[in-house]
Write a structure and sequence with these properties.
Blueprint (H helix, E strand, L loop, with lengths): L9 E6 L3 H11 L4 H4 L1 H5 L10 H14 L7 E9 L9 E11 L4 E10 L4 E10 L6
């Protein structure tokens, strides 16, 4: 993406997670909590159905930073996450990236990260610090 990144820049990314994504994440992470994998178990919880792993949801931030904005060459320096609500398999979500402090001298950017559902309800809130010598200039 050939966009100049400066204070106030915003990027939005729509996405969803499939059954295969959730099962694959469970295998890779070792998090086999039945809330993610067992429909009958999940039906008896406060969510009433299976939920996507919180860190799988947050992984969309890494995908966007590393491949879209700023993109190739990005180094993830830090990320906070606050889980506000559940994510569900097959539902669409929007990841919002607000670049609030761009330091062109250090090639760093502080980014407010947020995932919302399509009704703009906050699902995950956070803040990231990223470095990219080629794209934050």
């Amino acid at each position: 993406m050939a966009t100049k990144i400066e204070n106030g820049f915003q990027y939005k990314h729509e996405f969803s997670f499939s059954e295969d994504d959730v099962v694959g994440f469970a295998k890779v992470s070792g998090d086999n909590n039945p809330i993610h994998l067992d429909e009958e178990y999940a039906s008896k919880t406060i969510f009433k159905r299976r939920v996507v792993h919180g860190f799988l949801g947050g992984s969309v931030f890494s995908k966007v930073f590393g491949t879209i904005v700023p993109g190739e060459g990005t180094i993830y320096l830090s990320q906070t996450l606050k889980f506000m609500g559940p994510m569900y398999i097959g539902e669409k979500y929007i990841a919002v990236f607000d670049f609030t402090e761009v330091d062109v001298t250090k090639h760093r950017a502080k980014v407010q990260t947020k995932i919302t559902d399509l009704n703009n309800n906050a699902i995950i809130l956070g803040e990231a610090l990223v470095l990219n010598h080629n794209k934050i200039i």
